[in-house]
Specification:
Elements lengths: L1 H33 L1 H12 E6 L6 E2 L5 E13 L1 H4 L3 H12 L3 H8 L6 E7 L1 H10 L4 E10 L7 H4 L11 H5 L1 H4 L4 E7 L5 E6 L7 E4 L3 H18 L3 E7 L6 E7 L18 H4 L9 H10 L8 E3 L4 E4 L2 E4 L6 E3 H6 L3 H11 L1 H10 L28 H6 L8 H12 L3 E2 L5 E6 L2 E3 L11 E2 L3 H17 L13 E10 L6 E14 L6 E8 L7 H19 L10 H12 L55 E2 L8 H11 L2 E6 L2 E6 L5 E2 L4 E7 L8 H10 L1
Parallel strand pairs: 2-8, 23-26
Antiparallel strand pairs: 1-6, 2-3, 3-4, 3-5, 6-7, 8-16, 9-10, 9-21, 11-14, 12-13, 15-18, 16-17, 19-20, 20-21, 22-25, 24-26
Helix pairs in contact: 4-5, 4-6, 10-19, 12-14, 12-15, 12-18
Length: 705
């Protein structure tokens, strides 16, 4: 009996032990096998923190591989509050003195309960060194990247800008953010049971693609400099200059005013960051008469020598009287364009009819996006044909009741320049990763150009547009040495107080191209609300002239018109005139060196095939001495080509006045003379063996400087 009791007790103990072991091993199996991943995540959450670090963005270059945007290494300060312990007040006080952050703000961060907090990101080198010198426990420095724009405002509206986390917020930086932006880098903060930080690791870096633009930084500089000068002279509210290659749609320069510095975008107003070239809508005014005449010529409805009665400056359309800006009588079609007759344009449009007119407007790209690879593009304003009123055809024929962007208009003018083909405008030339050229897909993929008018129509229009410059409203756009065609525009703005067209607030513009028979560039100039003289032929045409002459010389475009003695004499007079004062709010770019220093002293960026593109080294032959007053010593231009002279002058911030063709033979003032930035320099070209004829003239010029 006693043995049976012992046996029962053993069985009970064994059963309990078996149940206990079953429960233990069952729980272990549940934890190890079923809940393993859940507990692993919870453990990692307690032991480590993953913090995103700004990725290294690809660089942005101009068409000649000059860097316009790059990422440079900087350091950011962060803290692990649990390591700081009871010294948080002291750490906050010391860091506040070094970084200028309020002490209470730092204490709040340290007491937040987070295992990782940023103290201050993207530190300048001196502040990073100061934090390092404090040697505070629990405060560390982490390497990051910062976007840097070495040419400051140059092409800012094309480039755009980024936020603190290196995300693109404008321009190409935004449009191609996913391409330029590398994969996010991370640091992992590890902690033991006491939450002491003891290790960290970084994710594999994956740099974004580099972008090569169609923009030429020197042409961009010319456009921005002349636009700034025009704004200062006319007191316009805003302005745009676009330089385009009419033969392929490439944008060589896109300048807007107001401007901003993408290195410090928060310091600029929102309107300064607006890319007016693609976003601003305005009534084009008389420049739209090009579309009216293009449609009528293409339909064989008019001839250049055909005469229209402009009825002394007034015409009735559907019972509405429309007055011309002048009381014209009988005018040929050529003179209707040259003298910009509103009544003449209306009569031509009435002969064409609304349906055909609407089709041509659409074919030229108005009322729809051009497809340019920049963000924020507007479609403009063009009502559907069924919504036109009886008077709409009269208004639209002279550039009212229709809204366009500067980019739409310059692209349409380019189609006339190249023989009738409309190309999609674009600013991206290539995507590169190292030596590899990446395929252009999506919005960057090239599109098929389309013929909008017959080549014969384009040729006729080019001849008539030349008449605008030679005999009409665009005489101030006439170039020294090149044939030119264009059209002026003076579009009245709506007065918000009256709801009517303002007699003084206008959009003054000029659109044209040169040379006529083999166009190299199409240029649009638009000025918003110039004060005083306010017509396109008065204020925009001269800007076109200055930009075109410098750009054509820089591109080495052969002159197709011999310089007359009058033009040569005029160039002398310009050289003798007072130098243009440097604009107080416009800082020219020194192409020989970077105008701003990046926030690091380490190598900045390596270009394609190892070429150092962090700074553009100055050509030793272009180096000039600066005296104590900052005056510029002129180099010797003799034997240089027009392109070389133009580039050298741009490097020095000077305005070249080029006379003749061939190689440089003489200059005024003489080589070695001291001039101020912005001065006009006359350089004569011709046979290098010809005797110099500017020396005596130069002596007199130098005395006046």
């Amino acid at each position: 009996m006693q043995e049976e009791k012992v046996h029962v007790r053993l069985l009970i103990v064994a059963g309990v032990a078996l149940l206990w072991m079953t429960a233990v091993f069952g729980r272990l199996g549940y934890v190890q096998l079923i809940r393993h991943s859940d507990y692993l995540v919870r453990a990692q959450r307690q032991q480590q923190r993953t913090v995103d670090i700004t990725p290294k963005r690809g660089a942005i270059y101009d068409r000649n591989m000059h860097p316009l945007a790059m990422s440079v290494p900087v350091e950011s300060a962060f803290a692990v509050p649990t390591e700081i312990g009871d010294n948080k007040a002291m750490a906050a006080r010391l860091l506040s003195g070094v970084l200028g952050i309020p002490r209470d703000v730092l204490e709040t961060r340290f007491d937040s309960g987070n295992s990782f907090v940023w103290v201050l990101r993207k530190l300048p080198p001196d502040k990073a060194d100061a934090v390092r010198a404090l040697n505070l426990k629990g405060v560390y420095l982490q390497a990051e990247n910062q976007r840097y724009y070495p040419k400051r405002e140059l092409a800012a509206h094309v480039l755009g800008f980024v936020d603190l986390d290196e995300k693109g917020l404008g321009g190409i930086e935004y449009q191609l953010d996913s391409t330029i932006r590398g994969k996010s880098e991370k640091i992992v903060v590890m902690a033991d049971a006491r939450q002491r930080w003891f290790d960290g690791s970084a994710a594999q870096k994956d740099q974004g693609a580099n972008v090569v633009l169609t923009i030429d930084e020197k042409i961009q500089y010319i456009a921005e400099r002349e636009l700034a000068a025009a704004i200062a002279k006319t007191h316009s509210l805003a302005g745009t200059v676009i330089v385009q290659n009419p033969n392929n749609g490439q944008i060589l320069a896109l300048a807007n005013w107001p401007k901003f510095n993408p290195n410090t975008p928060s310091e600029s107003k929102t309107e300064s960051r607006m890319d007016r070239a693609v976003s601003a809508i305005y009534e084009p005014g008389s420049t739209f008469k090009l579309i009216t005449l293009a449609a009528a010529f293409d339909q064989n409805l008019i001839r250049p020598e055909e005469v229209f009665d402009c009825e002394n400056g007034k015409v009735y359309v559907a019972g509405h009287r429309i007055r011309d800006h002048k009381a014209f009588g009988m005018l040929t079609v050529a003179n209707i364009l040259a003298l910009s007759s509103d009544v003449g344009a209306i009569k031509i449009a009435l002969r064409l009819g609304p349906p055909k007119f609407y089709d041509y407007i659409r074919n030229f790209g108005f009322g729809q996006q051009t497809g340019v690879d920049l963000p924020g593009e507007s479609r403009g304003m063009l009502r559907k044909l069924e919504n036109w009123s009886a008077v709409s055809i009269g208004s639209i024929s002279m550039g009212q009741e229709v809204g366009v962007t500067p980019l739409q208009l310059v692209t349409a003018v380019s189609s006339i320049a190249n023989g009738g083909t409309l190309y999609k405008p674009h600013v991206v030339s290539q995507l590169r990763r190292g030596d590899q050229i990446l395929p252009m897909t999506g919005p960057l993929a090239p599109s098929e150009p389309k013929e909008v008018i017959r080549p014969e129509t384009a040729a006729t229009l080019r001849r008539l547009m030349e008449g605008v410059v030679l005999n009409g409203t665009g005489k101030l756009a006439r170039l020294d040495g090149w044939t030119v065609a264009g059209k002026t525009g003076s579009a009245q703005k709506i007065d918000p107080n009256t709801g009517r067209y303002s007699p003084t607030q206008l959009i003054a513009s000029f659109s044209g191209f040169a040379p006529i028979n083999d166009p190299a560039v199409t240029i649009l100039v638009s000025l918003d609300s110039p004060v005083g003289q306010h017509e396109g032929g008065q204020v925009a045409a001269p800007v076109f002239k200055r930009v075109a002459e410098q750009v054509l010389a820089y591109l080495d475009v052969p002159r197709d018109v011999p310089l007359s003695p009058k033009l040569i004499q005029a160039s002398y007079k310009r050289a003798e005139a007072e130098e243009v004062a440097t604009l107080e709010d416009f800082t020219p770019v020194d192409f020989g060196s970077q105008p701003d220093q990046p926030p690091t002293t380490e190598p900045i960026e390596k270009g394609v095939k190892g070429k150092d593109l962090g700074a553009e080294p100055a050509n030793p032959s272009l180096t000039v001495a600066l005296d104590e007053g900052g005056d510029i010593a002129l180099p010797d231009f003799q034997g240089k080509t027009m392109r070389d002279v133009t580039e050298m002058c741009l490097r020095l911030g000077l305005e070249p006045v080029l006379v003749g063709s061939g190689l440089a033979t003489d200059e005024a003032p003489l080589a070695g003379s001291k001039v101020r930035r912005g001065a006009k320099i006359t350089v004569r070209f011709g046979d290098t063996g010809a005797p110099a004829k500017l020396a005596s003239k130069a002596n007199g010029i130098h005395k006046n400087r």
